[in-house]
Design brief:
This protein has 500 residues and is mainly beta. It is 8% helix and 33% strand. It is built from 4 helices and 34 strands. The chain has a 6-stranded antiparallel sheet, with no helix packed on it. Strands 7, 8, 9, 10, 11 and 15 form a 6-stranded mixed sheet that branches. Strand 7 and strand 8 form a beta hairpin.
Length: 500
């Protein structure tokens, strides 16, 4: 179980037995009463709890953790090993101070250049991973003119000498996103070699390649390292109605979109990506709650009352493959997927796609607030689930009672990173925390997501989120820690008296 190992390490420390002196013998404490559940065969520990607003994160070539702490800049730590397979952080330092950095972070493939984004610019810094410092105080703006007054995060992803950048919509419904050259609701790409060689920064709206548009707010971007498939997760529209009836509790769904194969898109001169629908079409997650739902299935795109009719006027228009690309998978409305990361590691690495679900802000029963994994087929480079499946991911870390999350009183996942040992790191912006997860068994999660949403977290009601798909018990984080730490304190006190 999750809490036994830290308790054992504390006990060993009391008796002066051998433990890793570089990590604390007991975990940091959450700043709230945690109600987290961890899938069977997984372990975890809180490694940072005093951050301002952690967002994107990654590991450099020396294995240091770098993270964008909004309002501060880029911060970094050394990663130290624990004897139980976990890790801890030490020697925190501010790598680049800039209170305008808000989410995006990337490193060049040789690890010597750091890229960070504000809402308007992508900046580069020479970077030394051995010292966790920028070797020059001078930054260079490589791409500019990305601002709008709505979604301000600019996710960065680097692959094969190219930087991908996502920019979201200007507000909930953005008519400018019907135009591919608006720079709104798009994923674009730029050559880093050209960007560094130019005297003037690229203009985001008028220059660069267009990988996809009609993508309302694709905060998570990644490339499958085995197949070259490019993937993005989209946060869809709020407060919609269809036929005069409100549908926004369970529709439209959030999306996993396939942006194409690298060698057929970005490596293809003159390539222009497709329209993924927004703001004319949205994807269905819950069919029964929709008016006029005859013949509609999960994942199909539809028109609703508030959407623009510039590019589509009927459901049939939205599902015309010549006009729009449909999502590869659809998730419960409002789960807010924010980061994605592929997992290929020898210890059970099955090619799955990790996704952080940040959680809803306007659903009556909150949903999301968890870290999950989408099983992928290595041979095809596609998810195992069909586009019409609601059971398309496995939960690994989740909040047991999402009603507690309404006031941000829970762990709210954002950035995800996987280190060289296969451990999964995840940050929570609302609580200013970072956790690390690891396992000695397979890397699957549980329970799987289903279409049962009575608890607001898209989990199977039969196991109620407390067992894995194999039936093994999951661990509840924080449920008995206070009791155990009290026992440890009592033992330490007794031994202290004996030694006087």
């Amino acid at each position: 179980m999750l809490l036994r190992r830290p308790f054992l390490l504390s006990f060993l420390c009391i008796f002066g037995l051998s433990v890793n002196a570089q990590c604390p013998s007991y975990p940091l404490q959450h700043n709230y009463a945690p109600d987290l559940v961890l899938a069977a065969r997984w372990d975890s520990i809180l490694v940072s709890n005093n951050l301002t607003f952690p967002r994107g994160m990654l590991f450099d070539s020396e294995g240091n953790l770098l993270l964008v702490d909004r309002g501060i800049g880029v911060v970094g730590w050394k990663v130290m090993e624990r004897e139980d397979g976990g890790a801890c952080l030490e020697d925190k330092k501010v790598v680049v101070e800039n209170d305008q950095f808000n989410h995006g972070i990337a490193l060049s493939e040789d690890g010597t250049t750091l890229y960070v984004s504000t809402k308007n610019d992508v900046f580069s810094y020479p970077y030394d991973s051995k010292t966790r410092t920028t070797t020059s105080p001078n930054s260079k703006s490589l791409i500019t003119n990305m601002s709008n007054t709505g979604h301000v995060t600019r996710t960065l992803y680097i692959h094969s000498g190219t930087i991908l950048i996502s920019a979201g919509s200007e507000g909930n419904l953005d008519p400018l996103a019907t135009k591919p050259n608006s720079g709104h609701s798009v994923v674009k790409f730029f050559s880093l070699k050209e960007a560094h060689a130019r005297k003037k920064a690229f203009d985001f709206k008028t220059e660069g390649g267009l990988l996809g548009w009609g993508l309302r707010n694709s905060v998570g971007l990644t490339v499958d390292p085995m197949t070259g498939g490019v993937w993005a997760v989209e946060n869809s529209v709020d407060m919609l109605s269809r036929g005069g009836k409100e549908i926004y509790q369970d529709n439209p769904g959030e999306e996993l979109n396939f942006l194409g194969w690298w060698n057929q898109t970005i490596d293809n001169p003159g390539y222009i990506g497709p329209n993924y629908g927004y703001p004319s079409c949205v994807a269905v997650w819950d069919v029964p709650s929709l008016p006029d739902n005859g013949g509609i299935t999960v994942g199909e795109q539809i028109v609703v009352d508030q959407l623009s009719t510039r590019n589509a006027t009927t459901d049939a228009d939205c599902n015309d493959e010549k006009k729009f690309a449909s999502p590869r998978l659809t998730f419960q409305a409002h789960m807010a997927p924010l980061d994605v990361h592929f997992d290929y590691f020898p210890s059970g690495g099955d090619g799955g796609l990790w996704v952080s679900f940040h959680g809803s802000w306007n659903r009556d029963v909150p949903t999301g607030y968890k870290l999950s994994k989408i099983p992928f087929d290595k041979a095809t480079g596609q998810p195992m689930a069909k586009a019409t499946d609601k059971q398309n991911y496995e939960d690994v870390l989740w909040n047991r009672d999402t009603m507690k999350c309404k006031d941000n009183g829970c762990f709210r996942p954002v950035g995800v990173a996987i280190d060289g040992k296969g451990r999964v790191w995840v940050g929570s912006d609302s609580s200013g925390e970072v956790m690390v997860l690891w396992t000695t068994g397979d890397r699957k999660g549980g329970p799987e997501g289903t279409d049962n949403v009575d608890n607001g977290n898209n989990r199977n009601s039969e196991n109620n989120g407390n067992t894995s798909v194999s039936g093994e018990s999951s661990a509840v984080i924080g449920s008995s820690w206070n009791e155990k730490i009290g026992v440890a304190g009592l033992v330490a006190g007794v031994l202290g008296v004996m030694m006087l």
